[in-house]
Description:
CATH class of the domain at 269-386: Alpha Beta
CATH superfamily of the domain at 269-386: Thiolase/Chalcone synthase
Amino acid sequence: MSETVIVATARTPIGRAYKGSLKDIRPDDMGGFIVNELLKKVPQLDPVQIDDVMIGAANHVGEQSLNLGRNIAALAGLPDTVPGTTVNRFCASSLQTIRMAFHAIEAHEGEVFVAGGVESTTRTLGVGFAEKDLNPRFTDHSRSDFINEMFIPMGLTAENVAKQFGITRQRMDEFAKLSQDRAVAAQNNGTFAREITPIPLPDGTLLAKDDGPRPNTNLEALSQLPPAFIENGLVTAGNSCPLNDGAAAVLVMSSNKAKELGITPLARVIASSVSGLAPEIMGVGPVEAVRKVLKLSKMSLRDIATVELNEAFAAQVLAVCDELGISIEDQLNPHGGAIALGHPFGMTGARIMTTLINDLQMRDQQFGLETMCVGGGMGMAMIIERLL
């Protein structure tokens, strides 16, 4: 029986928004570049055989508007016969594209898919919607038909999680330092070089490293940072992910097609899940998503060697680990996460999958789990098995 496998991955370095290394590159050009580089890794594949190019993005404005997926397919040099679509599940947008490819293959509706995502906070100016466009049933608490705070600022959700789950500022800062330390070590020892595709910059130089990791991060400096969202709050710029730019993609195909083309898969997809919860505490969305995906796969967390949990905020990472029993020392984000690396929303799902496969290879492990919280009150998760 044919299964769904990932045969190649590619990601750009992650740039800091507004003043970082990728600020002068259009997001559609970034996406076209990374899809083209991804396909170079699989010369056995004739691009005409690609069933769809699915690209995730969170902000569909400006240079990220219209059908970004179709545009990126064309910018990557794919034939006109290869379609493209754009997907939005906010932070999990490109994990959703991998899930869609998985579903299509399992349903025998195709055999080869490019799944990926891009986000340029710089080029979209961080704007996803205008205040006048917000539905008042999500903003006006005085209304009798008020529903919830669907558009609540993400930093406030982290404050809510910290309060509800008893996460202290000290634990948050300690975790932020751990993320930075792990990412700096991985950058220095070449771990990230294995997964990053260097990208040419407009000035002729080649960017090969993420902007984010900060050497010599110390707890004293972190502890002195002021609250970023509310007076006397716990969430700071130091224990949150920054705003970023970047692109990533993975090539997903049926195991039968991979065998036919003589391609050795990197991993197989075992199961995926999505869950919902109150937007005000969206940070703990992974809790139910992980429980669901473990049930679907008939596995437990003891079976999972590495967990890549998106670090939107230290508060939610700690709450999720506490609730699920994820070992921060042995399982979680061995090479750091978004607090250090950054979180370009549409890119992150495919970036984490790239990193997870790299983790399993570097640590000689079998099963990995990717999971993340999602703005608007959702969680997502996917389990893979390394095949190399």
